[in-house]
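Thread: quick sanity check before group meeting

JM: Hey all, I'm pulling together slides for Thursday and realized we never actually wrote out the predicted structure for the chain we discussed last week. Dropping the sequence here so it's in one place. If anyone has concerns about the input, flag it before I start.
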Amino acid sequence: MAQDDALDQAYGGPDIGRKIRTLREKEQLTIMDLAAKTGLSRSVLGEIESGEVTPPVGVLLKLAKTLNVGMAYFFQDTVVADKTSVTRKDQRLRVRRRPHHHEGEVDYTYESLETGKPDKHMEPLFVEFMPMETGDMIFSTH
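JM (edit): ok, ran it. Output follows.
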């Protein structure tokens, strides 16, 4: 358990939930409006906004599109208007899918590789999967 606590601190990542709530309110959307637009449940959105749940990459992408921002918005503190931007390894923000991770689910962390440019045409991410025996995995489909 001490190792999990250390990982949570190391991979806590940015305050994604607060940023989602701020964007939602700026767009004058209720949590029910956002749920209808994204197909996510009201309770899941509430957990994300309160910071209880870190959204997986796919959910974060869906929220970014719905709220008219790039995914990097959730990882950046400031916006750079330069034509090029470099995010050094020690500047990346890492997010770990916890604490809602269930036994048998594949666990992973992700980092935005470029957080300074707001209007890019792709979202470069580095995703690292935690080692796990194949027989212990629970697979899901969409």
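AS: nice. Helices lie at 2-10, 16-26, 31-38, 42-50, 57-66. The first helix runs from residue 2 to 10.
JM: adding both to the slides.
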